[in-house]
Amino acid sequence: AQSVAQPEDQVNVAEGNPLTVKCTYSVSGNPYLFWYVQYPNRGLQFLLKYITGDNLVKGSYGFEAEFNKSQTSFHLKKPSALVSDSALYFCAVRDWDTGFQKLVFGTGTRLLVSP
Amino acid sequence: EADIYQTPRYLVIGTGKKITLECSQTMGHDKMYWYQQDPGMELHLIHYSYGVNSTEKGDLSSESTVSRIRTEHFPLTLESARPSHTSQYLCASRLPGLEAPLHFGNGTRLTVT
Asked: Which residues, in sequence order, are CB contacts of B32 under 8 Å at separation 6+?
């Protein structure tokens, strides 16, 4: 079965510093990976995805993610954090076992950016 | 912002009541999903649909039911609400294709007293 792990419940970073939110995955085939962000009292918003191609994927709001096949990781990064980036972040992988119809989500990481 | 709407945003009801959570999307997406989100953040898939008249149960056992009579509408019904149903319910839809991301509504926060 496909799975993703987000090892950190919370990440704290000062505004202006680089941030990394970690995600590792386990899949039985090619990984189709996604990052989503959730602001308070809102649904999830799509940030970026890796399907194939360049290992560095750029997405919304200045975020990017680095796909590393050997380490089975897909870490989310941003060069300079903003207070407004404080939110919940979810990594997800498409589920091969159900004909790709479903996404398997990680448990989420709370990002807190301090002024 | 994606054009997917959930109503109501907040609902407080008593035990035993029947409720329907509404979800509508104007994007013409065939695939739609319902997720239950714990207070601790984790998302659990409870129902999904490939298209009209197609519904499937998700990973988390749920006492809710869904219907898909129209492409744009995917309501979720609880016949008899219980305190254990207290949660946030998120509806989502997407285009076909493995690369297509999910578009989420803003959710319904349900409290059963």
From this structure: B23, B25, B48, B49, B68, B74, B91, B92, B93
Residue-wise over A51-77: b if at least 16 C-beta within 10 A, else e?
eeeeeebebeeebbbbbeeeeebbbbe
Nearest CA to A90 out of B30, B93, B58, B35 is that of B35
Tell me the nearest-neighbour CA distance from A41 into chain B, angstroms: 7
Contact (Cβ atoms closer than 8 angstroms) between residue A64 and residue A94 = no
Asked if the Cβ–Cβ distance from B43 to A46 is below 8 Å, we say: no
**pLDDT tens string A10-63:** 999 999 999 999 999 998 888 999 999 999 888 999 999 999 889 999 999 999
pLDDT tens figures, B73-100: 999 999 999 999 999 999 999 998 878 8
Q: What are phi and psi of B46, to 5 degrees?
A: -110, -30
Chain B residues with a Cβ under 8 Å from any Cβ in chain A: 4, 6, 31, 33, 40-43, 45, 48, 50, 58-59, 90-92, 98-99, 101-107, 109
Unique residue bearing structure tokens 């309501």: B75
Say if residues A76 and A60 touch (Cβ distance below 8 Å): no
Q: Which residues pair with B47 in a beta bridge?
A: B34, B57
pLDDT at B108 over 90: yes
Confidence of residue A100 (pLDDT cuts 50, 70, 90): low
